[in-house]
Structure formats: structure tokens, C-alpha cells
């Protein structure tokens, strides 16, 4: 009984000690109310300007702050960027850059404790630390608390080596190359334009190999680079022709007779393509993309086994024009083929050609479209109906100005004549009752 009585004060004492220690710890902790998340992800070209590292604390605690400093750590070194003296000192100051001349190009500071990174690049991944010297209580010694944030920079992908358009013989091996940079390093995948997913199964990496190519392999192949912070693509077209003596090329002649015939056809696309002015520019990405897709669509009927002997050596989209989108296409065939356009003509009779809806008839040997203006619209003819006759060389505005001047002169002359007539009538005998003459004076 005596033991239990003596043990009670001991447990009470221990509880009091633990409670006081806890209270002291809670008082010593600096009262942060806001801090940036760490790591802070910054993406070049997206959110890498005016990046705010914003800290804040209980305003009631400001009178106990001795000073605030903001550091930058990285590469084994540490740099003091900004500082201020707090209200717990004799001469408090506002937060300011330590070296405004040097650091003012990179940073700004905002009260009470915000650092703004003006422009963050991939080589500027740092840890930023804010340190606060303060008195936990008015009677306790000075202590220090700090918070840190790591700024991590990501770079969207950029294609550094573009896949090139390729022309090769059927049966050859062809390699398309596409390289990209970025942080993290992008993943590269290959797809075929206008193809279903099962026609190109998970081809990845910077190189895409086509082994023993066939005519059906001709078309457009898209390289896509993606790293989670952006996506970029490039397209390359491939054209294949039969090997041997019947391949079409300039200066290929057989006893003075060319071995190739060129057929020009017009195809009107009503669905699957929309006219934009850039389609009039052969060097634009829009022209290249649509031309590649149309080449694939035209190749499709010739890839069937029954049309093997009619396969073209080359399919070349020469131009696009309005209405809805009209394409003029040149196709090269062996000169011995009797009707090389029959597979294409049969295909368009269904109104579908690959991914496009088209007119059901081909236009053979279409005329070239008129030149396009800078806005892409067709220039209208402004030749007058009497073109070829002799003209004065004066513009319509000048002619109308001359006519107007002549009319004005006629009107002025007419007014002068009328005024003169009225005056003479008044001066003639009997023209006025008050007219004075030497013979009889004023006539009453």
C-alpha cells in the first residue's frame, strides 16, 4: 500500500515533463502557412517563365523574426540570392536580391517570402532553400528553421533527324531513320498513314526497316516522338518500282523509244480532305501530308494480286486545287500495258478510294489550275469584252473625271448665256418702265 502511494507522484511527474517537452517543441516550430510542392515540375516552352516559389507564415509571428535568406544549391555550390532583416531586429528591411545587377535578370522577389524564377532552362535544375532565423518566444533563444524545393525541368521532344522521302526498287531493303531529343528521352514509334493498327505492329525505336519491299509497302510512314511532356511527328513517303530494264527514269530509251508512258488523271476528293490555302504550296506540310495519303490510296488497288502486271513505276501528286479538293496526279507505267488505269478506274466507281470519298469518274489529262493569288484564291480574268481594240490607255476613273469636267463647263456656259440674255432684255426699249433716255427722261 505504501509502494502504490509513493509511485503516484512519480508518474505524475513524468507526465508533466513529457507535456512540457511537447509544448516546448510545438512552440519552437516555425508557423509556415504556405510552401511550394517539391519537386516542382517545369516544362520548357509551357510553364518555364515566371515560376513562383511562394512561402508564407503566420503574420502574428513576424515580430519574432530576425532574418530570412533564400539560397540556391546545385553543382556542389551554394549561392545566396535574397535576404531581409525581420521585425525582431532594430532595423527591419524588406526582402530584396543580394546582387540586383547580376541576379535581376533571373529572379524577382515578392513580400513576404516569394522568389520568382523569370526563365528556367534545362540546365537550371536547382534546389532552393528558404532559411528563417527567429525567436520561438520572446524569452527563448534564437533558432533557425528552413524549407526547400527542388525545381525539376522537363523538355518536350524535338525531332533532330527527320525521316527522308525514299525511292527504291522493289525487293530492296529500306531503312527510315528518325531521331529525337528531350528530357526524359522520347519514345519513338512508327505508324503507316491510312493503315489499320494491325498492319504495323508496335514498331519502335529510331530506325524502321522495310525488308524486301513490295509495291504494297509504298506510302507514308509517320515517326512519332513522345516523352510525357509533348508529342511531335514527322512523315516520310516511300515510292517503289520494279527492278530490271523496265524501270522509269530520265534518259531511259530503248532504240529511240521510251519504255514508260505517263498518264495524268484528275481526282476530286469530296470527303476526307478539306481545302486550305496552304495546299496550293507544294512545299507546305499540308500538301506533303495529303499527297502522301493520296499516294497510298491510289497504290491500294494496284497491290491486289490480279493487278500485279499493271503496277505503276511512280505515282506523283502534281498539285491540288479548289472544289472541293481536286488533285492532279501523274502515274508512270510500262509502255507495253494496254489499259494501265483500269484498276484505279474500277476503284473510284465505288466512290471510295482508300480513306477518301471521291467522284466516281476519273478526269483524264486534266488541265492545270490557274495560278493562285497570295491568299490561295484563283485570280479572276479582268480582260474587258472589247479586248484587242485600240484604247486610249486611260483608266475608267480618269475618263469619268474628264466627262464630269466637260459637263460642268457646259452648265457654266449655259448659265452665263442665260444671264446675258436677261440683262439685254432689260436694257432693250420697253423692257423696263423706269428706263431713262435723253429724249424724254424717265418714262413714267
UniProtKB/TrEMBL annotation:
State one Pfam family annotation: Ig_3
> What are the start and end residues of every segment in region (Disordered)?
365-389
Quote the InterPro entries the UniProt record gives.
Ig-like_dom, Ig-like_dom_sf, Ig-like_fold, Ig_sub, Ig_sub2
Q: Which Gene3D superfamilies match?
A: Immunoglobulins
Ig-like domain segment(s): 157-239
Query: Which segments show compositional bias classed as Polar residues?
Result: 366-381
Which keywords does UniProt give here? Answer: Membrane, Signal, Transmembrane, Transmembrane helix
Name of the featured protein: Neural cell adhesion molecule 1
- This protein's species is Acropora cervicornis
